[in-house]
Amino acid sequence: MDIEKLNRIAIQMGQAPRGILAADESTSTIGKRFASINLSNVEDHRRAYREMLFRTPGFGKYISGVILYDETIRQKAADGTSMVDLIRSEGALPGIKVDMGTKPLPGADGEVITEGLDGLGARLAEYANLGAAFTKWRAVINIGKGMPSQYALKANAEALARYAALAQAAGLVPIVEPEVIMDGDHDIDTCFDVTEAALKALYDSLWDHRVVLEGTVLKPNMVVSGTENPRQAGIDEVAAKTLKVLKRRVPAAVPSVVFLSGGQSDQDATAHLSAMNAAGPLPWHLSFSYGRALQASAIKTWAGKPENVAAGQKAFAHRAHMNGLAALGKWTANDERSAA
Ligand code: 13P
């Protein structure tokens, strides 16, 4: 294993002012996004949408890598250029989601396990040939009555670690994503405790599976109030509690920590990240790997219409720029107005 190469890539992925664009929605998930703009979920529309994003002039200034879905890493733009080449021409790295989604975890009502380990070694080799430099696997941890169980935390951490070991063996940087879901009426301290337990289980399993942390990237949730909780923690509390749990549970050997947005508003996701970076110095590069928080305004502006492509690209470029400032700890609400 060329750990120096993996380490270089893992640093590059989270180094300010850049972060990751998560554009790896499965066909069914992108269908939900398209439904919000009344667009049918056919391959031509998926191509047109991703091509719009990847042809955004200058996006590579703020985006170090793009996570793709299986269809997209094999796909060509309308003029025959591969999506992978569009991304590379901006100096960004193509990456690939390799998990196969979640299924109910037997014996644990309401909890899920991520599938996709069978045959993964061969799939990783193919993705490396298609140009991927890194990979992603997402575990889903639900909070609720009696949840998460230790069983679910452990089973998901084991799967993440087995995946990470296989990715490194294939020469690809694994993004490990144990997502504690925001849905529920729990308070922010419950989110803190569950996030701590999930990270503890993850780093124990990564050790067991001999994963070299210098060649990994962590993609965590932030510590936030449950969406149905009457007391919603403010920006400073989210930033302080998220940093506290990361410092307690994420070894300094991990080069980059890149957050998911998880359903936060665009501006909250940016404000939280900026507040954390402003509280540095930190042991890791701390940046973003947002899906919805980078794409929501672009998809709405585009609305599936060719005449809106430039406006959609402008919306995406704006969010990328704002999050680039946040990766530096330098974003203010004023930047939204002046740069919009
Ligand atoms: P969100 O930022 O929309 O949560 O998506 C990030 C992601 O890739 C989840 O796996």
Describe this structure in words.
With 340 residues, the chain is α/β, with parallel strands linked by helices. It has one domain: Alpha-Beta Barrel (TIM Barrel), CATH 3.20.20.70. The protein is built from 13 helices and ten strands. It has helices at 3-14, 27-35, 43-54, 70-73, 83-88, 120-129, 150-169, 188-208, 235-249, 266-278, 292-302, 309-327, 333-339; strands at residues 19-22, 63-68, 93-97, 102-104, 112-114, 134-141, 173-180, 217-218, 256-259, 285-290. The strands form two sheets. The protein has an eight-stranded parallel beta barrel with strand order 1-2-3-6-7-8-9-10, surrounded by six helices. It has a two-stranded antiparallel sheet with strand order 4-5. α7 (150-169) crosses α8, α10 (266-278) runs antiparallel to α11 and α10 (266-278) runs parallel beside α12 (309-327). The protein binds 1,3-dihydroxyacetonephosphate (13P).
Features:
binds 1,3-dihydroxyacetonephosphate, two-stranded antiparallel ribbon, 8-stranded parallel beta barrel, 47% helix, 340 residues, 10 strands, TIM Barrel, globular
Give the topology, please:
Blueprint: H1 3-14, E1 19-22, H2 27-35, H3 43-54, E2 63-68, H4 70-73, H5 83-88, E3 93-97, E4 102-104, E5 112-114, H6 120-129, E6 134-141, H7 150-169, E7 173-180, H8 188-208, E8 217-218, H9 235-249, E9 256-259, H10 266-278, E10 285-290, H11 292-302, H12 309-327, H13 333-339
Parallel strand pairs: 1-2, 1-10, 2-3, 3-6, 6-7, 7-8, 8-9, 9-10
Antiparallel strand pairs: 4-5
Bound molecules: 1,3-dihydroxyacetonephosphate (13P).
